[in-house]
């Protein structure tokens, strides 16, 4: 055999073996969730395991109502209803409501266990590609209006004090204030240096809005009265969601890089990162129970069952 051909075959074989080894390592990493890194500020209480619907399971947004946690599956469209066991998270009971795929959020109305905008008794749905918000009457189950948005909407947050709804606009690095009663945008502001704003949370009492920025891995604090950025903090990569626990003045963010960032609010204008806990790649959404102060982080999974990691603050 020609020595050049032989050498080429050897290189091809080595390359193929390297690809197999790397692929195996990647699959093993994604399939094995392990346990989160240790933290002085948060205690890992365990996982709530959910039913598996395929090889890849991507969980999306979470909503909590009392001792019931609702989680959507972006992969299958399933809505999981979890009756939480306060003492043993792994013993929580799980039920499923099948869907049609790509479920991206869940809302609850108080009379029906579904949350919506109580001041106008309407459900608000943001349509990203259409740059449009749709208003739905949940009783009549009909569309009752639409609001044209100046950019691509990602995540809305309601200010209970004013009744205004704030909408992040991912493609123009801005937020808009929406008056649902008037069915119109009543304000729009840049939140630079934020790039690609995604999840938002509001501290209504201290008039602060927290937005995570998927494009440059930071959290910005926005003053709802003066309409200016107060500060910006570096957080884990690919952030998608943020939650605020008012009694503890704690802010939590999660991102696709698999990091749970814990931030302390020392005052309306003073913030510091307490810790960055390594969770698992793709664990990008979370919610917080402001009564028990537990934090729930949704994990993506390959081959393994999807799961929710449960943390409690170490006070």
Secondary-structure map:
Layout lengths: L2 H29 L10 E8 L6 E2 L1 E7 L2 E6 L5 E5 L9 E5 L10 E2 L13 E5 L4 E6 L4 E7 L4 E6 L6 E5 L4 E6 L4 E7 L6 E7 L4 E6 L4 E6 L4 E7 L4 E7 L4 E6 L3 E9 L2 E9 L6 E4 L6 E5 L1 E2 L4 E7 L2
Antiparallel strand pairs: 1-26, 2-25, 3-4, 4-5, 5-6, 8-9, 9-10, 11-12, 12-13, 13-14, 15-16, 16-17, 17-18, 19-20, 20-21, 21-22, 23-24, 24-26
Would you give an account of this structure?
- The protein has one helix at 3-31; strands spanning 42-49, 56-57, 59-65, 68-73, 79-83, 93-97, 108-109, 123-127, 132-137, 142-148, 153-158, 165-169, 174-179, 184-190, 197-203, 208-213, 218-223, 228-234, 239-245, 250-255, 259-267, 270-278, 285-288, 295-299, 301-302, 307-313.
- Residues 103-111 have low confidence and may be disordered.
- The protein has one helix and 26 strands.
- By secondary structure, it is mainly beta.
- The protein folds into two domains: 1-31; 35-313, 7 Propeller (Methylamine Dehydrogenase, Chain H), CATH 2.130.10.10.
- Helices cover 9% and strands 48% of the residues.
